[in-house]
Amino acid sequence: MTQRIRELLDSDFPAASALGEEIHHRVSSGDFEWARLLGAELARRAAREGEDASEHAFLLDRLQTALATTAGQQSLRALLCLPSSLRAGTSARTRAERRLAHLVALGHRPADIVPVVYGERLGTAASDEFRACLLHELVLVGVAVLQYPLLRSFGEALVAEGHPLAPLPLRLLPAERALLRPTHAPHDWTWALPPAAVERHSDQPELRVSPEMRRRTAAVDPADITVPEVAEAMSAAVRHWLDESNGMVAAQEFWSASAVSPDDFAAVFERLPLTAWPTGETRTRLHPATSDRVLRVLLTAAVRSPAYGNGMFGAYGRLAAWRSLGGMVGAAPDAPIDHTAMLVEQAHWFIADASSDWFHQVAWDLAVAALRPGGQEIAVLAATDTD
Questions:
Q1: Is-contact 53 45, C-beta < 8 A?
Q2: Which residue, 298, 301, 300, 274, is CA-closest to 358?
Q3: Are 344 and 175 a contacting pair, CB within 8 Å?
């Protein structure tokens, strides 16, 4: 069997093409021992070839995907015997672990995942980081993880050791209700939102500014009080647009001596000195939005890849989305997510049309605003990216 694998890798045909078909056939027919041997051979060749191992890394991705999307304990055991990544460096391994966790949560049943990943703890890919990501990916797909003692105890261990994902609840919060799969949803349903016009992201009619609204808010004069720490928190869900791609982010907060009514917010918004809508440009269309809709927008931005680079996947994407929400509502940096969620539900939310020249208007645009509880503070987050 090993000789056949070596022949395929050494053949005149592109290995990715020939082995792609072979991987699909072998895994779908349950030949998981062949999958293990291929993974071992790819790792051996990658170690020998060093930086020239990109084709082998691509094939490992194909093999991992096939096993991760083939349900059953045997395929899961074979997957965990593979190296998580052939690419050098911590960042490559981290991305591979997050990707694997996402795929496994979608492709395998909890009844298979729990005993194999959290009970047996076998294989090179079953690192604690992989298992931490998988735990929270399972939360996102609606698994009641607290009903599984092994999952619950592992989550408690993450808290005890101060793992970065420890602040995330092991259940979906009421504010995350939009992430729950509807009862009669089609098989391809997802909470992720596609690139779309503001009408689809908000799902509510545009707010029209009337002369009466302008009269009532004439004395309102919000001051820009943005501080770097809050702007950084607000930007967490789109930080990878900046770090890995060509993204731009404008995160601003304002304070008004007079409280702003949610009904008059559009009239105040059109006068704010916003970076994403330079003075003199036609003011954007504004739509009201529910808090859970805004959460979906931010979480989609976090898990989705920018024009260049990678997305955060579910576990760290959820963490980043809640950090953005915390910044938007003015929560303390160390506030429990349950407390942040309460403020999120109390705030009034809006989604703006990314129509100014500041936005690239390719496929990566985001603009949300929050009128914080009490009506005296406003937060606005805008982001854009391009290839």
A1: yes
A2: 274
A3: yes
